[in-house]
Design goal:
Elements lengths: L2 H25 L3 H28 L1
Helix pairs in contact: 1-2
């Protein structure tokens, strides 16, 4: 698997996990879990963008 594909896939996975943590954190009023979810979501977005950049550079 190309590095770009791996980064895009893992980035999407982290975004989804982050969204779930954020929603659960809000539902149970756990601010730490909510913030952790937001951070993981953002990390996933960054990783996905890196994958897109790598894809362009590989061409």
């Amino acid at each position: 698997m190309k590095s770009s594909t791996k980064n895009k896939t893992e980035g999407k996975m982290h975004q989804m996990k982050g969204m779930v943590k954020e929603v659960v954190g809000k539902a149970v009023k756990n601010r730490d879990l909510e913030i952790e979810g937001k951070i993981e979501n953002l990390d996933g977005k960054i990783q996905e963008k890196i994958g897109r950049i790598e894809e362009v550079v590989e061409k």
